[in-house]
């Protein structure tokens, strides 16, 4: 199996496992979880590397709120590298309207081993499993591109909402 499929299956299994419990409390718990932002020290999930070769940087992410169709969501992208690096970051997604102001960014890792974050905003257009593709390169002509995939599970909009 390829990395993308494995990542999507893992996300689906984790989310499916989170749905077990008392039915009476599930609606209130789901609404609270969907609105709760990720804590500053929340666990960062590694994005799935899609390109061959040595990546320009490692990419991790934290989804701030559970994505819901038609509602803007936030995604924190965390970049780290063993050496200082300057890179152009470009994000796109199928079935996701990514805010143009956050879809492209110049990110600079000044000190080796540190992490630099970028906030990405997007609005899901349909329910289900999709992904955000993030491409990194030095911004120079013909520089190698590192591509990552981030699986995103989108919930349907609440009825009457």
Structure, explained:
This protein is of the alpha+beta class and 161 residues long. The chain has a single domain (3-154), classed as Immunoglobulin-like (Sandwich). 20% of the residues lie in helices and 40% in strands. It contains three helices and ten strands; from the N terminus they run H-H-E-E-E-E-E-E-H-E-E-E-E. The protein has helices spanning 3-18, 23-35, 100-103; strands spanning 45-46, 48-49, 58-63, 73-80, 85-93, 96-98, 104-109, 115-124, 128-137, 146-154. A five-stranded antiparallel β-sheet has the order 1-3-4-8-6. A five-stranded antiparallel β-sheet has the order 2-10-9-5-7. The relative contact order is 0.21. The model is unreliable at 12-40 (pLDDT under 50).
Write the layout of secondary structure elements.
Layout: H1 3-18, H2 23-35, E1 45-46, E2 48-49, E3 58-63, E4 73-80, E5 85-93, E6 96-98, H3 100-103, E7 104-109, E8 115-124, E9 128-137, E10 146-154
Antiparallel strand pairs: 1-3, 2-10, 3-4, 4-8, 5-7, 5-9, 6-8, 9-10
